Amino acid sequence: MEFTAIDYSIFALLLVLSSAIGLFYALSGDRQRTVQEFLLANRDMGCLPVALSLLASFQSAVAILGVPAEIFRFGTEYWFLGCSYFLGLLIPAHIFIPVFYRLRITSTYEYLELRFNKTVRVFGTITFIFQMVSGAGAVGAAEFGALGVAQHCSPSLQVIYMGVVLYAPALALNAVTGFDLWSAVLTMGLVCTLYTTLGGLKAVIWTDVFQTLVMLAGQVAVIVVGAWRVGGMARVWRVAEQEGKIAGIDLDPSPLERHTFWSLSVGGIFMMLSLYGVNQAQVQRYLCARSEREAKLSCYAVFPCQQIVLCLSCLIGLVMFVYNLEHPLAPSRRPASSDQLVLFFVMDVLQDLPGLPGLFVACLFSGALSTISSAFNSLATVTMEDLVRPHFPGLSESRATLLSKLLALGYGLLCLGMAYVSSMLGPVLQAAISIFGMVGGPLLGLFCLGMFFPCANPTGAIVGLLAGLAMAFWIGIGSFLQSWGAKGVPPANSTTLPTMGNLSTVLATTLLPPTTAPPRWDGGLGSGCAGWGGAAASPPDPVSPSPTGLQRFYSLSYMWYSAHNSTTVILVGVLVSLLTGPTPAAALDPRTISPVLPWLLCCLPPKMRRWLCCGGGDPVQAPGHADTTEKSHGVPNGLSHPGPDWQGAEGHGYVRSATAPIYAVQETSF
After folding, report:
1. Does a structural domain hold residue 655?
2. TM segments (predicted)?
3. How many domains is the chain built from?
4. pLDDT value at residue 457
5. 74, 162, 183, 609: which has the highest count of C-beta atoms within 10 A?
6. Is 333 a domain residue?
7. Which residues of the chain are modeled with pLDDT < 50?
8. Residue 308 domain-assigned (yes or no)
9. Cα separation of 588 and 203, whole Å?
């Protein structure tokens, strides 16, 4: 399974073209001379490139390796995650995007200062950075891969996460093909740092577009060739159905079951919201669109693209399964862990077709490049706008732009360092990723608390966030320790300690946790794995008793983590706000409240509506659309005109005026 010159050439072409895109945008236009251009692409991007960039950030190398392995081992039940995509994108388009876009903010966490105060903003920013640097992030949803929850991480967590995303695919590739490990890591890291630092967000978006096309081409090539070798796609489906790999709808309501229709389709919505609703990397792409309409259209356009990507990943898993039944590998060539399944399959099925293995490797590394470039840019944005500029308000535009570029460069170099560190940490890193990957839920809860509960005050927001984080860590640490103490045998929904030094095994235990699907034994890596998984086969363990007490709590399906933790933030935040005194109506900026709140409250009794709205006017009594436009000085959808008291600066968005506006929630049209 050696790479040929053609394969190396295709892989090199990916890196050269990615660098060329960055250099092009560094030398064209305004040459990235302003913060607005570097961090927000001059707010001039169309919906299609933004949509493909959103998709690329979502589809990491971890997902390309992990989802097919999940289907190969446990069947197509994971495919029902696609049911969550509709509401997971419709809600951000009509609830989060209008608020963020109309405030003209650069960092998502500027919203928290406008809605609450600077302290809440700092708490949110630090949580995000901690998440991103520690390694649980963006691609923090189930699709972010059966191998990883990386995308849900907070900023500090994100740095470690970026190192893992860079290191893990290189490690898996090295194990299968002999491709030099650190040459791949250094080349990818330096190329990504180069085009992100020189070309800014515009270069990141257009390289994402290019890399998305490469990813789709690589996956399609594998499906076409693999299906052709086993008799066609119809036969693949028929054999998979006969072998029990085509799953039906499991309507079991238990939240302890790893995958059911409800956990995937309902729990998945909350995971999608924590990524596409409030994650800085994604929101930054909405904000760079040339209009609010273009931002919403980009959200709509992602939906069919995500369905296509999910289908391709699942089909690869099915083709892999049927191919393995007919062409089992020799014992000496069997993969040591599930994250190597896809690469072993690709190298076996494409080995006599020069160029196609290189195309798939380019596909794999495109996923890694798109993920870490998004992380570099979003971390530079948050650091600049939330931690630097507030303390240096007199910073000139040229110096702010230079500092933003240096921050992107610094995060890129730090990512390379973390790739080295991640190669040495093993189980410790796995624990960090598994635990801190849950931070996306509390952040989602914090933003929902601000947008949907006008009574929420800063004290309630901070206490609620801390309660949500405590709940996330409690579940994460408890689940991890429980799996560690069970003689290495994890419960169905917990994280597992890797059994070998393979770091990509670590990723396999994150967002889509272990491969231990109860209560079936597959004799190795999956049903029918006598060829590829036989070396790892062991006798089935006796059925463990049903969890009781805290064990049940720790056995909560990972698909419900975001929903559980965000709900904790909201409940605690509202309760503390009411106990400490709700936000006065006169102190509330109406632009920070979701414009669809009146529609959501229309079924509640008037007394409860007034109570939730700080005792102000009944939001359902808000003027109609025509009247709203008249009272807002011609600005549609009830958005009040900034007026003469508005203070703005490039990249800063709205700033509170000395006198707070009177609270009045108004309707918006869909």
Report:
1. no
2. 6-27, 47-67, 79-101, 122-142, 181-201, 260-278, 299-323, 359-382, 402-422, 428-453, 460-481
3. 1
4. 92
5. 162
6. yes
7. 135-157, 487-530, 533-542, 616-617, 620, 622-670
8. yes
9. 38
